[in-house]
Protein 1
Amino acid sequence: MGERTAVLPLGARLTDDGPATASRAQPVVARRRISVLGATGSVGQSTLDLVGRDPAMFELVALTGNSNVDALADLAVRHAAEIAVIADERHYGALKARLAGTGIEAAAGPAALAEAAMRPADCVMAGIIGAAGLRPTLAAVSQGRRVALANKECLVLAGRIFMDAVRDAGTELMPVDSEHSAVFQALAGADPAAVERIVLTASGGPFRTWSREQLARATPQEALCHPNWSMGRKITVDSATLMNKGLELIEAYHLFPVEPGQLEVVVHPQSIIHALVAYRDGSMLAQLSSPDMRTPIALSLAWPARMAAPTKRIDLVELACLTFERPDEERFQALGLARQAMRQGGMAPAVLSAANEVAVDAFLAGRLGFLQIAQLVAETLEMADARGMLAEVDDLGAVLDTDAEARRLALNLLEKWSVPGAR
Ligand code: NAD
Ligand code: MG
């Protein structure tokens, strides 16, 4: 990947005196104002589950959703939010009607979403899925407080621009993805020169032991049965293809002070160790927790304090055995494609991610076979390369144009493949 901004020490806050480490900051004691972007989704609901257990500690500012008015309105009322925003403007009337008489503001559309993300809050949970999360998350970053980053696509699409915005605003960025939360903890503010490598673990998903022949016939229902994690549909399919781990490599590259060659993936079917950091003295530090997003979410909300999370506690004796395997990149080609895009840099990760979103939608709609997800991504990348679309760009508009163009290329390919006998 090309040149990039110096990575912010995570959990550090830029002050006039330069970065001050989070460990020197005061533990969280005051009531915290929280906004949740993507409140109706899996990460959003896990966040609100935690917040709802400790109403004395949290105050809800903005909650957002895409189109599910009932779910959004229920959450807004239950958590006494200041404002609820529905991204799809067509649902404004329904949301306003649902919130009438509650004192909760209703708003709709992209501008309202950005305005809500910028409302003063101690922490904004960025839990929107996919490229749609980029602008609202950047809006949250611009207010210069804490952003708890679940939306990995922000970093995949526009890693440099995003990290520059974080640095410029002096925003404290807390990773929410379990692997990156684990790395954050295992790094513990270490000197980057002392780090040899970072190992992200992958569960291997529901098809870890399936042959290519079986994978060719895998159905959406089978892909959506994740053995360990309960998550949204898109990321669950990404976990089955291992694209999720590929996107996480790119995410880690932007978050932590390492080069692509220092990032590894190991399959760990129990999903107990989420990542490890290997140091030059031979030590490896790992973070362990049950596969429940409420642990990394709790860390992102409360750090540098630790708040209670009602997750299953680990019993090492009951577990008895943790196992590790190398990922099979013959069967799971998405991982290699993502690694290649990370090394190539420029707009390659953005094109990879856009094509993958199209492919996953098509797979879930029964229009594409499981193995064709990676194939569609690979061919879209080839076409984008041939059109000179993979060079680095400097502004957000150009990133979003590339994203839209990559989607068009992927959809065109999909159309061609849908013709009987075309493939
Ligand atoms: P989800 O599909 O369950 O929820 C997505 C949320 O985004 C919903 O609130 C939805 O209404 C909203 N949304 C969807 N399209 C939108 C649009 N066009 N405009 C505005 N809002 C829109 O997704 P999720 O599983 O909660 O994942 C959210 C993010 O967190 C993803 O980037 C994912 O990669 C990341 N993440 C999720 C998990 C997990 O356990 N679910 C773990 C790690 C990282
Ligand atoms: Mg993860």
Protein 2
Amino acid sequence: MNASWETFTAVPPADKLDFFRKDGRLYDCLFAQQFDRALLDRLCALADHMRLITKERAGDDFLRGLLADKRAMLYFSQPSTRTFLSHMSACHILGLRVMETRDLKTSSEVKGESLDDTIRTFASYVDLIIMRHHGAGVAERAAWVLNRSPRPVPVINAGSGPDEHPTQALLDVYSLQRYLGTVDGKHIVMVGDLKRGRTVRSLSQLMGNYKGVRLSFAAPDAFRMAPDILEFLKRRGVPYRETSDLDSALSDADAVYMTRIQDEHDKDGESGRVDTGPFKLDRARMALLPERTVVMHPLPRREEIPAELDDDPRIVIFRQERNGMWARAALIAHIFGLEERVLAYRRPS
Ligand code: NCD
């Protein structure tokens, strides 16, 4: 595509999938709509296979040899614990050597270097860029710049501003599949700050890939799910309901996806004026949940899941965060065209 950035960025995601693909697979991973059902199923199977392989030293060594000649840059301009560490661990699983820039004060951006130049500089030294940025659409801009340059390298979006967090949505789907058997036909309840949370935006879009899924959005009035996502769900025929009554949604939930209030985005302290009490879990609400239900959270959590509930086996948040490492390792293996080699691996007899 030779369009200017202004023209390109105005194109809806679904119409520019090809620009971020190469050789029949994802090259850059930027937004949730790049994942179709077939790819999600393949990545989940690949993640399962990789975690099985690494149970033995020989399998671990095999995976670590696959990208031992490659390097990755982790470029994170916003705080991160899990997303950073799980991507780094995913790189380690495949033998990629990693470098990091987390504090922009140490980057030449403070000397006035443009983001485009910074990104192109990373590409001079590494074979993969994994980036989290406070600006919406910045990861896409980076991929757009590199794909038009003589030395493109893949870009993975590890969270961009308030808009997208596609690899979180991938690990969420992987977790749902592991704990519920399938995502088809399930009732997923998303709770909290749905307006400003990028995880629920990306996850809602992935739900369009599954049959018979129902969504409930339980949020305070001020933080309801944004209209663009509701429109998307309508177009994809995913039934949803918005409610401020969490209790009513819990009794037939298959998964409850809790989120924290994103008060760092407050313009004039609006979070402080919202009663978040009705959108927290406690023992009484846990009692409303069926035995089969799982409780998830992208983390970090605050008081919406009190730590005193953690011994309840339905709360899978720490297993979910570990799944992120495997889902991201599978994604990187896919991007580098290693899927078949990984799946073909059998332990030496
Ligand atoms: C989320 C994020 O950064 O969007 N965290 C994460 O990546 N696991 C959610 C949050 O910060 O609330």
Protein 3
Amino acid sequence: MQITSFNQYEEDYKKSIENPEQFWGEVAQNFQWRKPWFKVLSWNFNEPDIKWFEGAKLNITENCLDRHLEKNGDKPAIIWEPNNPEEESVTLTYKMLHERVCRFANVLKRNGAKKGDRICIYMPMVPELAIAVLACARIGAVHSVIFGGFSAKSIADRINDSQCKLVITADGAYRGNKQIPLKDVIDDALIGCPTVEKCIVLTHVRTPVSMLKGRDVWWEDEVKHVNDICEAEEMDAEDMLFILYTSGSTGKPKGVVHTCGGYMVYAGYTFTNVFNYQPGEVYFCTADIGWITGHSYIVYGPLSQGATSVLFEGIPTYPNASRFWDIVEKHKVNTLYTAPTAIRSLMSFGEEPLQGKDLSSIRVLGSVGEPINEEAWHWFDEKIGHGKAPIVDTWWQTETGGIMISPIATVTPTKPSYATLPLPGIQPILVDENGKEIEGNGVSGNLCIKFPWPGMLRTTYGDHERCKQTYFSTYENLYFTGDGCLRDEDGYYRITGRVDDVLNVSGHRIGTAEVENAINMHAGVVESAVVGYPHDVKGQGIYAFVINPEMHGEAELTKKDILQTVTRVIGAIAKPDKILFVFGLPKTRSGKIMRRILRKIAEGDTANLGDTSTLLDPGVVEEIIAASKALK
Ligand code: WT7
């Protein structure tokens, strides 16, 4: 199933469009099924109702673990690199990983988990996180991994939305020179989570935690009570595999649902192709498993293909800005898959951190999460790839399950800051505001997908109507991505960024409404409006316009209070970079905030505000502009 020439890509693409069922049926033969499907695809984008590999039975962990044991049991599955470079790294072979997953799966069962139960995972980037994820899949429980940077309130909202029965966490996490008290945060969250019966706690940072009798148990104790034999649960291709919460234009994050069969096929197929993975190579994705990139391209994609996946606990700048390059050298990394924000941040340290680092093992480079600017692309290409490693700029989303538009390494000619061409099976289309297709090349519009692919979301947990409204109602019979996009003269795609009220801050997806709701929780705040603005390292920064008549002249302190509130309500990742206190917001006569104007002001482009005649009080704009100029 690996594409090795551009010619083959073109042929496969053609085939995948002309006969999608035959194409994906053949791809799926490369995986292990307990029972075959009777129908490859049935679909309806209006409902939406999408089924792939109907009737088929499988367990994804048999594909990620068991099937490699005979030939590759002693091959490294996971290489763990700890936050502190002085500590030993850990290698888990496929045999070892299989054994630990089975053992922990038995721990889950012992604590009352069964097929279909939802389990929340809130953990540091340690091997046990991958083990916990796979153990859920082993017994058919649905995992909902929550990134370690989210607050207690965010966790509680997510746990309650999907009524999780169990939580898996650790005493704490390391992030550079910081420690995050994960168990404390979970304790706060669980006060408001009546469905949670058990909490399994891994010892990691060895900080004191409080263990609630009857609810909390230690991972290390539990594994002693069970053996390591655990038959995988037989799952239907369309049974739920996991939920992953993501932000949209409304306040409440959505639980994106992925199912077993299609997701597995898509994650595995795209992994092996996009990165041109070769047996024995070491692959390093720097994402956190708390995001979709980690699900698909640290855990399921690589392991389903028998690859060696590096799992890194730390951050790119700890203990210094050489860390990624030290890891590349130490583990002889062949593929490095990271985010533009990390590249830009490392660029800013100059060449000194690269001195004397042996990066010769690198063969393929990847970028994900946000548009990569040309400067960062060239730096990545020249300084890290030495002009020899193709860069795959991979465009996709939590909802798509896997990479959609991307070069295929060594196959597709690349172009700086272009995601290039759709992968086989993916049918992108650009539409105008009215949903009319924009044909031809050298055009731009809103990016939609007009045909299903196996990795696509099936619903949003507990609220199918919301899935329909968000993705399938804007334009009839199309999946709407929320992204703007241009297609150049060569038919190459370049993603230009969100066209909705979603921000992309350091590759993290944050809804403006979510941040506004959080700011508005602060006593004294009457109203707020949040927009993004260009930020050199983060891609986008968060700019908040806040009406707060009660700050008693203590603007700096009030700002800090607001940041604290946002951290409490969402998490530190959603903290505004700039807060501007204003007396009013630019509103239309119908009371709608004109964000277009605020965006311009945030960008510092106040000369071109466009038409402001529909504003209720145009004077407000002058006031805001004057205040914004005084803001540092
Ligand atoms: C949004 C999805 C895909 C995993 C990580 C983010 C933006 C993603 C690219 C890219 C330009 C990109 C889009 C998309 N995005 N990859 N290569 N070039 N933009 O997943 O949190 O669901 O965010 O990230 O705006 O809609 P996510």
